[in-house]
Design brief:
single chain; about 425 residues; alpha/beta; D-Maltodextrin-Binding Protein, domain 2; 5-stranded mixed sheet; 4-stranded mixed sheet; 19 helices; 11 strands; globular
Length: about 425
Amino acid sequence: MPEQSNRSGLRRGARRAGVAAAALALLLSGCGPADSTPVLTWYINPDDGGQEAIAQKCTAAADGKYRIQTTLLPSDAAAQREQLARRLAAGDTSLDIMSLDPPFIPELAEPGFLAPVPEDTARKTTENTLDGALAGAKWKDTLVTVPFWANTQILWYRKSVARDAGLDMSQPVTWDQLIQVAQDQDKYLSVQGALAESMTVWVNALVESGGGHIVENPEAPADQIRLGLESEAGRKAAEIVSTIGKKGLGGPGLPTQAENESMLQFQGEKGSFMVNWPFVWPATKASVEAGTLEKSLLEDIGWALYPRTDANRESRPPLGGINLGVGAASRHPDLAYEAIECIVTPEHQVEYFVTNGNPPSDSTAYDDPSIKEKFPMAETIRQSLRQSAPRPQTPYYNEVSTGIQQHWAPPSGVDPDTTPKETTDFIIEVLRGERLL
């Protein structure tokens, strides 16, 4: 009877394995048989715990209607995009709420990977949204995500340098003026020259501020895309990047310099002007409080709107931040959007700015006294977000951005006469399948 005994043993083992698997599934799902509360998974980008804190508050406010659990995405934005795109394409039902970078939204919206935003949710969450943040949440003039927090770069300057140069920083300044001051005073202009997304951010802001667009018809299919780099605005952008690179005005580390490195350079003896995100202020204050920087440095730092490419045209500062989307395969899209309404309230946006340094997308949040106290440049940030322009809103953003990075970094290799055309030709050939990135 050994064969029969063996079969009985196998059946008993299978039953035990089934029970164990069921128990494990319940454990991993975070709820047992007595807890039928729907669980909404929120895929968040790394921060200082702010999104997790808001998730807990909105879970408490839901009073048992739903529970939000957070799952951390990679720190690199490109890796975030890749992971979410693959999961969405596979119909992953766990993508209830996603923290999304604005440039990647068209790529996810075009194939229908995002659940439609209900009209009532759109009305409640965008009534006071700043123009730049609202533009970054749309695709084909339709709101496909909900603005959460917005980000923008402003012009940081050393008051002593501006004073010695005779610049009135209450008035708009141009890149040409900043370049001249850096040359005259033997100072560094702190910009981001690395072969990274920060290069696309810089080039896009320069082109937009000059009245142009990197992609002129963003909704077109790949083989019909028209690029606007071979324009007056594109050539002027290349001239600015090239001048800073070739004349050494960006410092010796410019070819590998991203946001943190440019901040450290700005804090040094040869600092003068810098374009960078608002994190600069709390980071500098923390260094002063730790005793690694002199208090006099903090007193010497001023801020203004992003410099102009064209003296007669309002600047279009960079736009960053995070919008919230719902996966089309989510089992609870209605509850997910209800949770998003809670997450993006002005009160939570204020809290997130004060605790994590990420600016609100809601214009009314900037009137909160706690923001004005911690970020004295809050009004400049708000105005910058009104003027800001998103990076090219196209499903082919990855190809466009990578093409720019490969041809505009390092800055010393940029030529106003050839780089715009070479970049255009390369990107068009990639989009047509004639070249690889």
